[in-house]
Amino acid sequence: MLSILRRNAGSWAIKIILSFIALTFIWWGVGTYSEQGRNVAATVGGEAITTNELAEAVAGLEKSYREVYGPAFTPEMAKALNLKKQAMDSLVQRKILLAEAGKMGLSATDEEVQREIAAIPAFQQDGQFREERYRSVLSYNRVGIAEFEASKRVEITLKKVEGLLAAGALVPETEARELFRVASRKIRLLVVTADPGKAKADAPAEGEILAKYEQAKERFRTPARVKLAVAAFTPDRFGREVQPSEAEIKAFHETNSDLFRTEEQRLVSRIVLPFGKKDRDAVRKKAEEILARASKGKADFDAQAKAHARGKGGEAWLSRKDAGEALSGPLFQASVDTVVGPVELPGSFVLARVNRIRFPEALPLSQVRDRIVEQIRREKGKDLAVVKAYEAQPKAASAKSVKATAAAFGVPVVETGWVGAEGAPGVPAALVQDALLLPSGEVAPVKTVGDAHYLFQVTAKEDSRVPPLSEVRDKVVAEVAREKKAAAARAALQQLLASSNTAAELEANAKKAGLSSSLTGWFAPLSEPVPEALAGAGDLRKDLSTLSAKAPVPRKVYQGREGIPLAVAFSGEQLPSDAEWAEKKAGLLKGLAEQKKNATIEAFLSDRRKSAKVEIHPEALK
Known about the structure:
Layout: H1 2-7, H2 9-12, H3 20-25, E1 40-44, E2 47-50, H4 51-69, H5 75-81, H6 83-104, H7 110-118, E3 124-125, E4 128-129, H8 131-140, H9 145-165, H10 173-184, E5 186-193, H11 206-216, E6 225-233, H12 235-239, H13 246-255, E7 265-274, H14 280-294, H15 298-308, E8 315-318, H16 320-323, H17 325-331, E9 339-345, E10 348-358, H18 365-399, H19 402-408, E11 413-415, H20 429-435, E12 447-449, E13 452-462, H21 469-498, H22 503-513, E14 516-519, H23 541-544, E15 558-559, E16 565-574, H24 578-611, E17 614-616
């Protein structure tokens, strides 16, 4: 089933390339083997999709994504991908296609199932199907033979339905060649720029300055700001003088023994198989073949390691950290004398054998005494920081001085300059945001941020305000001047375009006007990035395909990078040769046929969904 999903990624909404195991096993467990679940998630033409089927399909999708993305597959990504909806859509489509297969009398024979399985590379050795390897791979993935063969039977049936539905998805060669010509056509443009900084414009008039200020004065608004006196009551400050007793140290060690244990370690032998960009799949296949031979016993593993390993070899005790994120998961779930892998690491596949396990052990007090003392100081420091901060606050409020009160508690005070809601080094934003709500001179309640408890006082305050024109006049004048120069530059380009009908005329007119011009390199407007000279002119892309020798000059000024306006003109084109078409024809025809096939199947599914009475229970997708 997943092979169909993969080939039809556009219509099936599954956008990743899946490995063989993920492709094969996503549908394992659905259908016949889940019907025992009676909770219904959806019905398709009266036929139920159970909650078990949905859960298994979601789990299969998640496994597939994890195998592709590894650690990059986060809960946030899973949420964004909406795996439940993907799985439900696939199950609905599967039911529709299987129902259509029943109407057509399509099914898979035993011979077809056997032939399909025998052709799978994962079950082959030296190019030949091996029964032992077949059973080994299925056992490793915890899949029964009957379940797997049933899933392949469904997959073959679905392929037959798909093939019949898309039998007419052919693209005429003439149509394909025209599409190739349009997509491969390259053009070159003349680009004329007018730098606003060099444009001539009248000095801003008083009326223009006043109008700009009135229009944009909110942009000149200054945010509220405060000056503060801040004292931070922290665990470090109050814990440093704590001297725990021997009884406390011993009691802490006994009651928190789980904090002071050795790490679990595994004595591991490894076979490392490096790969490059071109041979990744071949090396993975080789690793799977070695796995089957190396799993029989330690002597067999060592023999395979001697024959194939490159890089790190021999035995080594590894913690989870030593093994790394990708390898530690399977490695620390495995029992003794078990081989895991192949695990993909950057640039290599690894097979790892667990030879011995060293379980965590409690560390004696003598080895962790210093850590315990620091931990007790930290914990007591936390308590003291809270007590002292709340003891100091009413005293500071009564004295109307954080500085004097904090000094009595041995806590230094930071006196800030003007700070806004974003905070400043040593002054959390949450604290400043509270301070902005207080009047000048007031001592605030204790503010806790993390383990620190802040006592602070507003020593000065300025409310948000719109400054008068006199304070921002220079900024307003500069803004008006920039706008006038930009308008003058655009007007100069517009005048050139009005008097130019070809690239040559535009270039000559630009030279007379003292404007810069240049030619781009050749580029395909439909399939390649625009040249650097056109970067930033986002609205230009949609106009490029209309430029030709018959319509060379668009009467439009575009906004380029850094606000510099530009004009363009068609200067020439290069069309693909017959040799290029001959080289690309087969691949293009195949790709276009695949697109048409996908569109045909998608249209069929869309039509059948309307008539099949698909009912999805909303709770199932939550």
